[in-house]
User: Fold UDP-glucose 6-dehydrogenase from Paenibacillus pectinilyticus.
Amino acid sequence: MQITIIGTGYVGIVAAVCLAKLGHNVTAMDRESVIQSLQSNKAHVWEPGLQELLTECNEEGNLHFDADMASATANADALLIAVGTPTRADGHTDLSQIENVLEQLKQSGNCPPLVIVKSTVPVGTCDELEANLHGAGLRADVVFNPEFLRQGSAINDFMYPDRIVFGCQSRHSEIMLRQIYQGIDAPIQVCDRRSAELIKYASNTFLAMKISFANMMADLCEGYGADIRQVMKGVGTDRRIGPHFLQAGVGYGGSCFSKDLQSLLTSGKVIGRSLPLLEATAQINDQRIPQLVVKLISLWENPNGKRLGVLGISFKPNTNDVRDAPFLTLLKLCQHHRIDVHAYDPVVQQVAFEGVTVADSPYEMAAHSDAIILMTEWPQFVELDWVRMVQLMRQSILLDGRNVLSDEVVAQLMELDGVTYVPVGRPVEQSVEQRVY
Ligand SMILES: NC(=O)c1ccc[n+]([C@@H]2O[C@H](COP(=O)([O-])OP(=O)(O)OC[C@H]3O[C@@H](n4cnc5c(N)ncnc54)[C@H](O)[C@@H]3O)[C@@H](O)[C@H]2O)c1
Assistant:
């Protein structure tokens, strides 16, 4: 099938290479600068396996790039929209990128018979888009096909999803969608568009809620002297609950959870429904970094001029995405307290914001620091020579914001003079696991 994809960000480019890999003839469209990079076989976002698959598709010749709507959509059977849907300052979803796509489509006069919305959009948006296209004389079926991929494992998630959801109103569009996903072995749920739009929001906000729940329990563990790792292990082994998204830490970040939660809260207000569970989820998350900074400052006499090493800039491992990263909130608070921030990230080597020195190695970052916070659980951070790290520091204070250092490493560190290890949701003295037989 001829498929045109509009927007080649984290979702669009992954959909493009995966659909091309499935045998479709794909044209991906974005801004000129992005298209130039992709045409020269350079992935502009960092995602494991993406560059390799891009090269493979370029060699096969069934993936093309175009910055012009008219030529990108000529002869297309389906158009897939994967542009951004950020939150506006008033809490509503900013649909301007989608509206621009619609305008470009109308101007081009080419509208494929099937328009697949993959961008996350408020309930009712697809109904409006279809009415808008029909009003302009473009006879296209608009379907909502939510994307559930996780950055960091996006290609695997696209090719091996837990489920695929089609929010469509006609048998014909369902048949076309089934053809597009032929080759992917996953249960398919077909439902109306509005339910599909809500499935995406409900999924993301539920995951955010699990994280905030674990963080709320972590605070309780600190008060009671219990170990959050053990508590969540005991909770998560219940198959009705499951072990995922129950790791306590610095809270969730990234471009989706906060945005989608905010969007749903605002949508609820529009129809007069309050969503207190989601309000609490956001509140708990918003407190994670301020609480961490209070802990940090309590370990120093005066934060002014202290040097903090931060391990991890991206919002999660295996991505270079810094959108809504907890690191950014930490940076802002550190600047407020005049703390000098040095950071290291395996992939993010440069940052577009001021007030941070990005180090070339974790050891360079650790040197002369008065504390280190581990913000992102990159696997390579666990493998560092932690004895060397603390020996390079001016003051050996280590806040493990993701609870990832092994008990063995922590025990080794505790044998050294003057090391303070602060995990999440466990009293410090219990950071080395104490079993009671
Ligand atoms: N990132 C994720 O993990 C993820 C997962 C599931 C769903 N989503 C949803 O998917 C959508 C896209 O997310 P993303 O992270 O890929 O966003 P992104 O910001 O990384 O990418 C959007 C891309 O669209 C391009 N674009 C905007 N307007 C355009 C136009 N008129 N013509 C051509 N290109 C245009 C931008 O240049 C950009 O490259 C969002 O609605 C998001 O909520 C994201």
